[in-house]
Design a protein that fits this description.
Elements (H helix, E strand, L loop, with lengths): L1 H16 L1 H32 L6 H17 L4 H24 L7 H23 L14 E4 L2 E4 H23 L1 H11 L1 H6 L4 H27 L4 H6 L2 H8 L4 H21 L1 H4 L3 H16 L14
Antiparallel strand pairs: 1-2
Length: about 300
């Protein structure tokens, strides 16, 4: 009993005694959560346009980072490497639509999901064959020294990365909600056949949404690659977006943002204030336990649409 009381309320005592440190942990979690939201947004975009979970999004993050670093290692300036990588991601979107998605129009969602698994392994293998499997260092010139703001120490790189990710999330949210193409994307998500019947070109919409997801993967790959190095684990980091989506809802852009912030703050606070009591590594599994809790009590997420099937 004493152990449970200490486990549950001990961290509250530490927070009370060291409020500045607690604020630093929360701010760090918020900045990390924005990065999670950016990765999750790529999943949301494709899910809303095709009704399928894109398992290949993590591989696209790795692919974009490898390509960007690969071009730079060949002596290409970073700004030109960025443009060339962007072209590669758009070309990849065209290839996926033409070779994989077009023959599967109006097929069951599970078939499209299995197709994205195949795309994942192909992208992983092909781009590591082209650029190599070694861990690559990526420096885009953003300082990583701590910055003091009101007595709170914050990593400068995390601030810049969060601003870039937040800006992109805002732009894409506006694009999806307030533009003609965005409305077409939502129509395709609701019903492929109905969208085609009113003249919305399904193939074009899929190319657009996969291209946008490629841009999101490029930004996420550069930011995470600059922070952790460009390596195979980037694809696994991207899968942290899965519990973010479960919390926020697979069809909600605001949900991806809020879910990312909850996961980012929650895992940082748990790692710092509970790790000493139950052992380290909480940051690796906290998000999935929280997602499991949500699946039991609110499977559609905080902002997701409740799916009702009539039989």
């Amino acid at each position: 009993m004493d152990f449970m009381i200490d486990f549950l309320f001990g961290p509250l005592k530490e927070i009370w005694e060291f409020p500045i440190f607690f604020v630093e942990v929360v701010v760090g979690g918020i900045l990390t959560g924005v990065m999670y939201s950016l990765v999750a947004l790529g999943f949301v975009l494709i899910f809303k346009a095709s009704g399928v979970f894109n398992f290949a999004q993590g591989a696209m993050v790795l692919c974009a980072a490898l390509t960007f670093v690969g071009f730079h290692e060949l002596g290409v300036p970073q700004w030109l490497s960025l443009i060339l990588t962007l072209g590669v991601m758009v070309a990849l979107a065209f290839a996926i639509e033409r070779i994989v998605l077009r023959p599967l129009v109006n097929q069951a969602p599970i078939i499209l999901f299995m197709a994205t698994i195949g795309i994942t392994f192909f992208i992983d293998g092909f781009f590591q064959m082209v650029w190599g499997e070694d861990v690559k260092r990526l420096d885009i010139g953003i300082p990583k020294e701590p910055l003091e703001i009101g007595g709170v120490l914050v990593n400068t790189f995390d601030i810049v990365a969060a601003l870039v990710a937040g800006t992109l999330v805002g732009v894409l949210a506006f694009f999806f909600q307030s533009t003609r193409i965005g409305r077409a994307l939502r129509a395709v998500a609701d019903d492929h056949q109905a969208a085609q019947s009113v003249g919305i070109p399904l193939q074009t919409i899929w190319v657009i949404v996969w291209s946008v997801a490629g841009i999101v993967a490029l930004v996420a790959g550069i930011m995470w690659g600059s922070k952790l190095g460009v390596q195979f684990s980037l694809a696994l980091i991207a899968l942290k977006a899965l519990p973010v989506l479960i919390l926020g809802g697979f069809t909600s852009i605001p949900g991806a943002i809020i879910g990312g912030l909850i996961i980012g703050v929650g895992e940082k606070v748990a790692e710092v204030f509970w790790a000493a009591k139950i052992g380290g590594g909480i940051e690796d599994w906290f998000a999935y336990i929280l997602a499991l809790f949500f699946l039991m009590f609110r499977p559609q997420g905080l902002f997701g649409e409740r799916i009702i099937e009539r039989v």
